[in-house]
Structures are given as C-alpha cells and as structure tokens.
Amino acid sequence: MIETRFTREFGVRHPIVQGGMQWVGRAGLVAAVADAGALGFITALTQPTPEDLVKEIARCRELTDQEFGVNLTILPAITPPPYAEYRDAIIESGIRVVETAGFSPKDHMPAFNAAGIKVIHKCTSVRHALKAESLGVHAVSIDGFECAGHPGEDDVPGLILIAAAARRLTVPIVASGGIADARGLVAALALGADAVNMGTRFMCTVEAPVHENVKRRIVESTELDTTLIFRTLRNTSRVAINSVSNEVVEILRAGGQFADVRELVAGVRGREVYETGELERGLWTVGQSQALIDDIPTVAELVSRMVAQAEELITAKLGTLVVAGR
Ligand SMILES: Cc1cc2nc3c(=O)[nH]c(=O)nc-3n(C[C@H](O)[C@H](O)[C@H](O)COP(=O)(O)O)c2cc1C
Predict the structure, then answer these.
(1) 126-134 and 158-168 helices, crossing angle to 10°
(2) Mean pLDDT over residues 87-105, rounded?
(3) Is 7 in the pocket of ligand 1 (CB under 6 A)?
(4) Average pLDDT over residues 161-170
C-alpha cells in the first residue's frame, strides 16, 4: 500500500485517479476504477442532460459499492450546457467528490460547500492552482503539457509544473498528464504530488467504453503521435494525429477561424470514433503517455500492477542507489 495525504483525506485505497473523459468516463469504467481502489469520475457532460447524469450515477451505484465522483468540465462553448443544472444533479445524487476542470469553479463552490462535497480542481498552471486553493478547493489536479485534452497555453511540462506547484500549494496535489505506469507514479510522488491522475492509460483498459481499434492504436503509437489543435484560438487541445486533426491545424495556421473548422471538430464525430473504431472519422483525445502503453489490461490488473511496481521501485530499486559515502 502507498499511503499519502490524498488517500487519507479522500478515503481512497490507492493514490490513483481516473479523471473526467468526454465520451469515455461512463459508469462501467468508473465502477471498475472504484472497485480497484482508485478514484474514478463519471464525466457529467458525456450525458446529454442532467437527468441522464442522475441515471448514470445510479447505474454506477448498481455496479459498485465503492465511492466515485463526477467531473464537471467548464469550457468555452457557443451554446454552453446548463452547468448549474448538472451541478445540482450531482449534489442531489449524493456524490461526495467532484473534479472541476476548465474555468474557475468559483460560481459552483458555495453549492458544493453547502453540500459538504470535496472539490478537486484540475488546472494547468500554478497561478490557477493557487487561485483554486484560495477558493477553498480540497485538492488540485495539475495537468502538464504532456496531457491528453487541454494542456493550457503555457506549455510547461509536468516535471517542472508539479514541482513548482508543490513549492507553493498547501492542499494535496494530484499530478496529471504523461503518467501511465509505476515509474510515473513514483516520479510524481518524488516531485511533491500526493496522487496521480491518468486519462489515456485508463482509456486503454478492457472496461473503457471505447472501440478496440482505438485501444490498439494507442498501444501502437508513440509520444510523437499527438498534435495540438486550436493553438491560434488559445483553446489548445491535444488529440491524436489523423487526417482530421491535420486539416484543422492547417486551416487555423493559414488564418482560418473557428467557423472554418466547426464541422471538422464536431464533438459527435469524435464520439463516433470511439463507437465505430473508424480512426479518421473525427478528432479523438489522447496524450503523449500512449508511448508508455503496450497492453490492454483490466482496470484491476492495471491498478494492482502499478501499485505493486511502485512499491518495488521505491523500496528495492531506488533504495539500492543510496550507498555509504567514501
Ligand atoms: C479521451 C479523453 C477525454 C478527456 N476529456 C476530458 C474532459 O471532458 N474533462 C476533463 O477535465 N478532462 C478530460 N480529459 C483529460 C483527463 O481527465 C486527464 O486530465 C488527462 O488525460 C491526463 O493526461 P494523460 O492522458 O496523459 O493521463 C480527457 C482525456 C482523454 C484521454
């Protein structure tokens, strides 16, 4: 067992989190993560309405008696979803822990606090982490530049970002981005984190509701097989390289605006990639950590292997490097 402030304060067996994943963070995966002793989050906005979210939470409760949370991602949108209604659905469903991401959780903190919900805010910079801490969140999850999805605009890799955050923050830190195995977990703990968050690694497990072709592509891919879209719009997102992401990058680089890529980037096309396994159908999210992934284990296998190897790495391998000075 690896015990940290995070495992104690969040009452979870292992210092491992499965963060929100659009189209992927559904009840089956989250329940498997919970049963494995890690902390999984259902992705609120994957559900078309707040009522569907309530049903998905209930479905997850039928699959596990362990604690799990819900991710609420607040991003720029032409037609914003009814965030307050999703938040209220989370609260009314009796969820005890929430991962917020994207914009500041400020507007939602009073309601979460009143309900006694612990909030982990996921962000991509030390300044946003400090801001979230000042708002009263219970932990921050910090995504380095390596991560799948939105790495922010500062391009600071986790090796610097987590250590820099650890120097300034007092709440527990969840290191996120680029972590897929025991080496990443141990490194994150060494940098000052109290837990790790993984997206790409959990997406490539038996229980992830993603077509086998996507999982196989992750196994085959390297750290070079992702690209950054929406750089010019300052809404950067790391996705798999394919014909669609290449076209989006080219159009925007040539001075195009969001309207010029709207059809290409439609969320439904991304969802269809996961459903059909047609890898060129749309944008799909993945991180550089795919370079470290070479199998499709069950979530239980993944978590127990990662913890066992991390223990071995800390106690045996790293311990042997320390020798008496001459
Ligand atoms: C398919 C996929 C979808 C994601 N969607 C979301 C999302 O909706 N909200 C969010 O906060 N993070 C999202 N993320 C980011 C993850 O929660 C996590 O921060 C990130 O994957 C960490 O980097 P890693 O993939 O290197 O582990 C997504 C990641 C993946 C792989």
Answers:
(1) 30
(2) 97
(3) no
(4) 98
